[in-house]
Amino acid sequence: MGVICDGFNEFPDVVRMQGRVMVQSKASEGFFCSMDFSRISLRPFKLSDVDEFLKWGGDDRVTRYLRWNTITSKEQALRYIEKVAMPHPWRRSICFDDRSIGYVSIKPESGDNKCRAYASYAVAAEYWGQGIVTVAMKMAMSRVFKEFPDLVRLEALVEVDNKGSQRVLEKVGFLKEGLLRKYGYCKGEIRDMFVYSFLATDQIL
């Protein structure tokens, strides 16, 4: 806020400032940086993503709320990409300049429940707080209802203390429906979860 306020002080006739969104991240070590969202894309995982995937998939901070455990070796990372990420019906790498920095997953159900799918996501810790997951989720939401014509409802389950993930969902238009007590098993514990939903008829924010 100080930078903006100083600008108004130095130019008293200015009533409006316009420009890129400025964000402050840990990666910038306290300095403000501008995120160019045109450099963000979603694509299927490739085996060549293994080194980048290991960087964030091997970070306990990133995997804290994920069902899968922290990746501990390049071999394990390669196996995960080959056996889990690539065969998945809709798991996309969040890429910055085509370099994998996270993922978005939309997992549709089958049979009579094919109207529903579950959303999950994560991004490398160095990119937290920069709006990247929000942009990636909007990209995913704009595609999956077209790619899965029977899909009516997206759901996301978020742990009660995962405030960052809750903010992402609310920013893109998900509705918090309620609390599921002792619902989700993660990292050896059964935890309370909030359930969020987004319908095909809802508006992406």
Automatic annotation (TrEMBL):
| Cited InterPro entries | Acyl_CoA_acyltransferase, GNAT_dom
Q: Enumerate the Gene3D superfamilies for this protein.
A: 3.40.630.30
Q: Which SUPFAM superfamilies match?
A: Acyl-CoA N-acyltransferases (Nat) (SSF55729)
MF-aspect GO terms? acyltransferase activity, transferring groups other than amino-acyl groups
Q: In this protein, which residues make up the domain named N-acetyltransferase?
A: 40-201
In terms of PROSITE patterns, this protein maps to: GNAT
The protein's name is N-acetyltransferase domain-containing protein
Q: Which organism is it from?
A: Rhamnella rubrinervis
Q: What lineage does the source organism belong to?
A: Eukaryota, Viridiplantae, Streptophyta, Embryophyta, Tracheophyta
